[in-house]
Amino acid sequence: MAFQILLNLMIAFLWMFLNNDWTASGFIVGYALGVAVLIVMRRFFGGRLYLGKVWAILKLAGLLLRELVVSSYVVVKAVLRPNLNIRPAILMYHTELKSDWEVAVLITMLCLTPGSVVLEVSKDNRTLYIHAMDITDVEQFDANIRNTFERAILEVTRS
Amino acid sequence: MEMIKTAVELLFVLLILTGALLSAVSSVGLIRLPDVYLRSHAAAKSATLGVLCILSGAFLYFAFFLDFVSAKLLLGIVFVFMTSPLSAHLTGRAAYRSGVPLWNRRIQDDLKGALEKEQLKEQAKTDSSSS
């Protein structure tokens, strides 16, 4: 992975040397050419291209932004309603993520989206205790986290 | 040309206004909601989106109209996104561990049993080491 990024940078600088063009736009053109070269030569690298990972990170950021807007709307609606009919609960959630890094990212994202705060993490990093603001269906809450955040994080860190 | 400029400017104004409104609503939530945990939802969360809207609106305005790319505003967004979940987690954890009661209309509490089990285990450990 690091090798691929280095190669891409080297191609970009080679392009700048050849053109004697030391501007930001020259670098961007060289970098784009490097990306094209990497895509053409992808059969010769072991593992997948780093561009796939960059795309997965962008998708994760997009997902976070969408969840942020959707659940902010839910919280704002709950706060402004004249009578408070919310059902808060502390729920246990078993995560399939293994490394510390993955779990930390998951917790950060859960805490960032309104409507859920992680209160406690068990010692083996596998069980999270989440305080949720409005629960209608526990199964659905679990499935929602599993299918959105966990899947997106796995896509970034996998191989 | 002038029309488009005004429209884009209005768009940024709308973005900043949304951010300000979100911050206002989250402070209302801070007063209205019944217990610490629910209040931390309102304080930490709606505020993140509010700050995101205000800072990105200011960033876009500076970049488009004054030709000034302010990296400090982007850094502000990054730092808010790093610190606000952390503070929400830690206040919630500290509140639960020091025994702040939950709202009486909660529907489920999975943490209580787990925490009691852990405390029993720790107590057993200290008992066996002291004797």
Automatic annotation (TrEMBL), chain A:
It holds the Pfam family MNHE. InterPro entries: Cation_antiport_E (IPR002758). The chain crosses the membrane at residues 22-42, 54-76, 101-119. Its main location: membrane. It is a multi-pass membrane protein. It comes from the Bacteria. Keywords: Antiport, Cell membrane, Membrane, Transmembrane, Transmembrane helix, Transport. It is found in: Cell membrane. The keyword Chloroplast does not apply. Belongs to the CPA3 antiporters (TC 2.A.63) subunit E family. This is Na+/H+ antiporter subunit E. It comes from Paenibacillus tritici.
UniProtKB/TrEMBL annotation, chain B:
It is found in: Membrane. Its main location: membrane. InterPro entries: PhaG_MnhG_YufB. It is a multi-pass membrane protein. Keywords: Antiport, Membrane, Transmembrane, Transmembrane helix, Transport. It holds the Pfam family PhaG_MnhG_YufB. The keyword Membrane applies. The chain crosses the membrane at residues 43-66, 73-96. Belongs to the CPA3 antiporters (TC 2.A.63) subunit G family. This is Na+/H+ antiporter subunit G.
